[in-house]
Specification:
heterodimer; A: mainly beta; globular; B: mainly beta; 11 strands
């Protein structure tokens, strides 16, 4: 069965620190990959997506992610986080089943 | 354009009751999916509707059901509520669903079962 793993449950960083959130999926076929963000009290918003092509994907607010097919990974990165990046981050994948599977989420707390 | 609208935003029900949640997708979107979000479990897929037909279903008991109308609006029903059904229920719409399309989420309905 398809699954998405986010190994970091809660990450605490100081402002200006670099961020990398891990995401691994289990599915051998073609996938679409996503990172969503949920700010406190707000709805899920798309940060970035990968459908095909360049495996390095740039999203909104300075986020980027790299698809490494051999590692079944799609890690999210940001070189310098801000207090306003405090939120919950979800990795998701669409596989042949054609519906989104989500990881359990990573809560990011940025300390000013 | 208007986003995905879910009503009501908050609900409090007692065990054994049933509840109906509503989702209005973005205009032109024909695929509507429902998710249950709980702390520690993340988002779990309930079902997806496309053109009034249930196209995909997650691993939830039969107490959870849904439907989609001809205008793509969707409802989700939970019967015989249990305490464990307390969660944020999210609706997502996309043009046609599946690979190659992007899903847009509503703000959710917070259901509390007491």
């Amino acid at each position: 069965a398809q699954s998405v793993s986010q190994h970091n449950h809660h990450v605490i960083l100081s402002e200006a620190a670099s961020l990398e959130l891990g995401c691994n999926y289990s599915y051998g076929g073609t996938v679409n990959l996503f990172w969503y963000v949920q700010y406190p009290g707000q709805h899920l918003q798309l940060l970035l997506k990968y459908f095909s092509g360049d495996p390095l994907v740039k999203g909104i607010k300075g986020f980027e992610a790299e698809f490494i097919k051999s590692k079944f990974s799609f890690n999210l990165r940001k070189p310098s986080v801000q207090w306003s990046d405090t939120a919950e981050y979800f990795c998701a994948v669409i596989t042949g089943a054609n519906n989104l599977f989500f990881g359990t989420g990573t809560r990011l707390t940025v300390i000013p | 354009k208007a986003g995905v609208t879910q009503t009501p935003r908050y609900l409090i029900k007692t065990r054994g009751q049933q509840v109906t949640l509503s989702c209005s997708p973005i205009s032109g979107h024909r695929s509507v999916s429902w998710y249950q979000q709980t702390p520690g479990q993340g988002l779990q897929f309930l079902f997806e509707y496309f053109s009034e037909t249930q196209r995909n279903k997650g691993n939830f008991p039969g107490r959870f059901s849904g439907r989609q109308f001809s205008n793509s609006r969707s409802e989700m029903n939970v019967s015989t509520l249990e305490l464990g059904d307390s969660a944020l229920y999210l609706c997502a719409s996309s043009l046609v669903g599946g690979r190659g399309t992007e899903a847009f989420f509503g703000q959710g309905t917070r259901l509390t079962v007491v």
